[in-house]
Write a structure and sequence with these properties.
Strand order of the largest sheet: 2-1-5-4-3
Low-confidence stretches: none
Shape: rod-shaped
Largest sheet: 5 strands, antiparallel
Number of strands: 12
Radius of gyration: 59 Å
Structural class: alpha+beta
Number of helices: 13
Mean pLDDT: 78
CATH superfamily of the largest domain: Histidine kinase-like ATPase, C-terminal domain
Order of helices and strands: HHHHEEEEEHHHHHEHEEHEEHHEE
CATH class of the largest domain: Alpha Beta
CATH topology of the largest domain: Heat Shock Protein 90
Length: 520
């Protein structure tokens, strides 16, 4: 037991030193591994060490109680008593018939089966008397009297007789100085069985005693207990090390990605391969980064729109302030100039150019004003097809030569819409399409379609299309592909779509027309 306690103390000190080493190790996950290893050691050793101690103590005490010397002494004495009983019976007969003539009848009275006498001569021994109760004397051919000459002893053996095996006891003893007598008699099967059981029991007991002495001497039981505890500690360390690596690797990766996100990099993602709850954590973290990126983009767009709305309000104000006096001055100038001057082609063209530029300025100021004053959408149940048809009628008789084609889905349900803002959206997209298309063979197609719980609105034209670079900047303020454009029309269209909780995309390549797809 002392050796066990010594080794247990050594193992625990080694584990404590290992945990201290891990705790101060520079790796980030070392302290997590310390906690995990400590829990594994506690859960494995707390129930196991007392159990192993109790079992080892019981095994040692049981061996001490069961394998006591008194048991061996009792077995030896029992076998010796049987042997003495056999030898005493035979010796009394041998000594009692020295002066008598041994006959079969005498053997029968004593219960013996045979009797023989050997006499020692100069250089040999010779049997001088042999009497058997049966016709054939049941002597064992392997028995040699000269090997036991001068001794008293006995032996048990089995002899075949009448299709059965009988137990026999053979007793030899000196009859005189030069003579040895041998007497044999049959034994009851119970006696022979008892003798064999005692002998077998003694043999087993001796083997167990040898094992006990070896175990107690070499501390095998306590050594095995120490080995089991050492194996449990090693397994706890290995499992904790493996598990901490599996758990901390994705966490370390998440920490690294978090630091990049904190530094402002929202385009990063965690590529850690994990399972179960860790995988769900990684997926949730990546989803959070995507949401942050989208929210940042929306915030930037909102900030830019707010800034542009303020700029648009100021620009509209600054343009309108001098615009009215200029228009009045031009009107007065035309009224006061003589007809001889106004009829001149150069003057007429100059005045017309001024009027056109003033109209362009007024249109630009109106666009800036509309962009700055765009209110929040007031959503009511409306029929999108009806709004499309009403807006399209305004362009049936135009000088642009463009042809409008309507492909409206009849099963389209009512949607929550702001009627005026949807009309403004349609007007802006239809005007853009007309300005982009050539004068002849211009086709503008407006279609509606049900898309699950949303309505799909498409406005396409057969104009020159857009380059990939133009498509990427199309919804940014101050970007325009038209001469004299304000770059705010499509920004306002996108804002209207977003006010309705929808999404707008643009498709088409250069030379293949343009298609705006709106889901609201």
């Amino acid at each position: 037991m002392k050796l066990f306690l010594l080794w247990l103390a050594i193992i625990l000190l080694a584990m404590a030193a290992y945990l201290v080493f891990l705790w101060w190790h520079p790796r980030k996950r070392s302290r997590f591994q310390v906690r995990l290893t400590s829990h594994f050691l506690l859960f494995s050793l707390l129930p196991t060490v007392p159990l192993i101690f109790v079992v080892s103590t019981l095994a040692t005490d049981t061996a001490d109680v069961l394998l006591v010397p008194e048991v061996e002494s009792a077995l030896v004495k029992a076998i010796a008593a049987l042997k003495f009983q056999f030898e005493d019976t035979g010796t009394r007969f041998i000594q009692g018939v020295k002066q008598e003539q041994v006959t079969a009848e005498l053997l029968s009275r004593w219960g013996f089966d045979y009797y023989a006498v050997w006499q020692k001569q100069t250089d040999s021994t010779r049997m001088i008397l042999a009497v058997a109760r049966d016709a054939m004397m049941p002597l064992d051919s392997a028995f040699q009297i000269k090997e036991v000459w001068g001794q008293t002893g006995s032996s048990l053996s089995t002899i075949a007789r009448s299709d059965s095996m009988l137990g026999y006891c053979r007793v030899w003893s000196p009859r005189s100085e030069n003579e040895m007598a041998l007497v044999g008699f049959a034994l009851a099967p119970e006696v022979l069985s008892a003798k064999e059981q005692l002998t077998q029991t003694l043999r087993i007991y001796n083997s167990l005693s040898l094992i006990k002495e070896r175990a107690l001497k070499d501390q095998i039981i306590w050594g095995a207990a120490t080995a089991i505890i050492a194996v449990l500690c090693a397994l706890s360390v290995l499992v904790a090390r493996k598990l901490s690596h599996v758990l901390s690797r994705p966490i370390d990766d998440l920490i690294e990605v978090t630091n990049r996100v904190a530094a402002g990099d929202l385009n990063t993602q965690s590529d850690t391969k994990a399972k179960d709850e860790i995988r769900q954590l990684v997926e949730a973290f990546n989803a959070m980064i995507r949401d942050l990126r989208e929210n940042r983009e929306k915030l930037l767009v909102a900030e830019r729109l707010a800034a542009w709305r303020e700029v648009a309000r100021q620009v509209s104000h600054e343009i309108k302030n001098p615009l009215t006096p200029i228009q009045l001055a031009l009107y007065r100038l035309k009224q006061r100039l003589p007809e001889s001057i106004t009829s001149q082609e150069a003057v007429r063209e100059s005045l017309q150019s001024i009027e056109e530029e003033l109209a362009s300025f007024k249109h630009l100021a109106d666009e800036f004003s509309a962009f700055a004053r765009l209110p929040r959408a007031e959503l009511k149940p409306e029929n999108l097809n009806a709004i499309v048809q009403t807006t399209a009628r305004l362009y049936e008789e135009t000088s642009s030569g463009a042809r409008l084609e309507l492909q409206l889905a009849p099963e389209l349900p009512e949607r929550l819409l702001d009627r005026e803002q949807i009309k403004r959206l349609l007007n802006n997209l239809i005007k853009n399409a007309m300005e982009a298309c050539p004068r002849r063979n211009a086709i503008i197609r407006i279609s509606t379609l049900r898309a699950d719980e949303k309505a799909r609105l498409e406005i396409s034209d057969n104009g020159p299309g857009l380059s990939p670079e133009a498509r990427s900047h199309l919804f940014e303020p101050n970007f325009t592909t038209k001469r004299g454009g304000s770059g705010l029309g499509l920004v306002m269209v996108k804002r209207i779509v977003e006010e309705h909780g929808g999404m707008i995309t643009v498709h088409g390549e250069e030379g293949q027309g343009t298609t705006f797809v709106i889901l609201i």
